[in-house]
Amino acid sequence: xxxxxxxxxANTDSASDRLQALGLAxxxxxxxxxxxxxxxxxxxxxxxxxxxxxxxxxLGQGTVSRDIDLETARSLAHDAVLNCLAAAVQAVGDLDRxxxxxxxxxxxxxPDFGEQSQVANAASELLIEVLGENGRHARTAIGVAGxxxxxxxxxxxxxxxx
Length: 162
What we know:
Low-confidence stretches: 1-7
CATH class: Alpha Beta
CATH superfamily: RutC-like
Largest sheet: 5 strands, mixed
Number of domains: 1
Order of helices and strands: HEEEEHEHEE
């Protein structure tokens, strides 16, 4: 579940300060021999799909609406987007230079679950809270039959350097 924060992150100067005010930190991403976490093409930077890992552990498995409830899925989206931001910082060097262009949120969900956008909102809200106007983005939320490692959520992004 997304925490309600007593300290408003919007009152701080930098994106890193706002992230810290929320009690959050960007995770370290593990290298993978099969893909890179980001690739620059022209002025766009494509962020590979990120799962809700924290400290090397996948935080949840299963299908939303069958094994995972909506609030848990929103929390997992929150963690997946932090991994996206970590890849973005690798690409541009500083959180204040990250501008989100587009976010694609995949939600492993039952066919009758129609609240993929509510799962994606958790990630969108965090991006805007941390990055301000640079966090506003175009977005698609899609329900899928399954994701890697039976993860309930995967998030992919296109960013630009601000």
